[in-house]
What we know:
Residues 1-30 and 184-232 have low confidence and may be disordered. The chain folds into 2 domains: 2-228, no CATH class; 322-462. The protein is α+β, with helices and mostly antiparallel strands and 464 residues long. A hairpin with a 5-residue loop joins strand 7 and strand 8 (134-141). Strands 11, 12, 13, 14, 15, 16, 17, 18, 19, 20 and 21 form an 11-stranded mixed beta sheet that branches. It has 8 helices and 21 strands. The protein has helices at 2-17, 38-49, 196-205, 235-242, 245-253, 255-268, 272-287, 310-318; strands spanning 33-34, 59-62, 67-70, 77-85, 91-99, 102-112, 123-128, 134-141, 144-150, 180-183, 293-295, 305-307, 322-333, 337-346, 352-361, 373-383, 388-392, 405-409, 414-429, 432-447, 459-462. Helix content is 20%, strand content 34%.
Amino acid sequence: MKNLFKLIYLSIALSTLFCCEKEDNGTAQNENFKTVSVDDAMGFLNLRTVKKTNANSYLTNISTDVQQEQITNTDELLTIVPAATIHQQHYSHILLLEIDGEIQSVVFSMTPDESPDSEAYDGELLITDLDGSFIKGYTVENGILQTEYLGFPDVYGKAVTQKNDCTDCPYSVCDYCDLEEVDIGFVGGSSGLPQVNYIVVGSIFDRGNSGGYIDFGWNSGGGGGGGSSSPNITPYQGFLNSLTLAQRNFLTANTPLKINIQNFFSENGHSEANESFITDIIIYLMGNPNSSLEFNINLDPNNALHFDSFEEAEDYFDSLSSSNYTHVSSVFEIGSVRRDVHSLEFNNFPQANIVTSIKAMIPDDNNALECLNILNVRSELEGNNTLFDWTQLDSEDPNDSSGPVIEINESTDSVKISVEGEMLVGLNIGGYPLRSRHLITVVITYNYSTAQINEDYCYWYYTN
């Protein structure tokens, strides 16, 4: 179905962006349009969207993964920029051509009726400007355009800047679903169902009473026949083409993941095994939006915790609802400002020690607990910082509302410190590098007079 997507947006976009004229032989005049380079496309979009990036913008994300597809019977390319709009159910691209010396653009959005994995597209098409103003709309059945929506004056040019979702209407404004529908009614070929690209082009580029259709669109055929051959595509674009509509849309909305995947392929190549694993990652993350797993190429999988599957890794971390430490060392310095330093190793993560440094003001010579004033609490990670990483999220100042929690028990001469942070753990899943991200709270309890750790009350747990 990936060819169908290219086909539909290329063919319709050409009619939307400009009006063709015919020569006597029925071929399209294309001297008035040219390819928009990748740099010019991004510059054009940056110039027109930089001042509109706010809560009311129709476009919520513009990808830098620009593609270009050849227009048959010409030497020109249609420039295609993946994008996301305020409507998550839309699979959207920005399409650009230079027409009469000026860059013109539309936002092309597809809303499938059923699973995007189906072989032929069934659904609706919406074409707007960059602000979401209605330009054209169509219905598609089995990959063939069936009807065109006819606008009325208060719909054309109406900007879409707010979500106005309807239960049954796939469009950005509920009023669009009240538009009148007309059958396109193109009939051609001996079967009455010609190639979909010629249905699209014929229904849109026909002008006047000359009849016929203009052979001017995108050639979905694999070889032979008329028209220009498709340009060579990069291995990464070939990988994207192998994904389903939903998977590509997921990548568009998850820029960090997409960048990591691009970097991974750049460093490791597009082997069948690599592409298969990356596809599995995308499928897993789509099906598990709350997963702690992240794809990260800055890890050496040979030194990471090894698992055979995503599920096995998740199950392992789920089993660690809380865990104790192994006490490594404790030191303290007595003075006007006392500093207690405790190092404890995570039992489940060898080579990862949480080191908590506690500074306290003691106003008398006896270091009396009732006079204790905790000034600062800092937690850091020592050990394998490539495999593990820790970031303290709490402020170091206990007096801050977002600071660590201090509990003093004079009857047991103990101090209990609770600090929240983020723990990253490197993983090896099937030979590929990932990591697991968790919010956890570390708890340190010790005897203040002796600096003796109470291991029964030193532990960590996931922060809800």
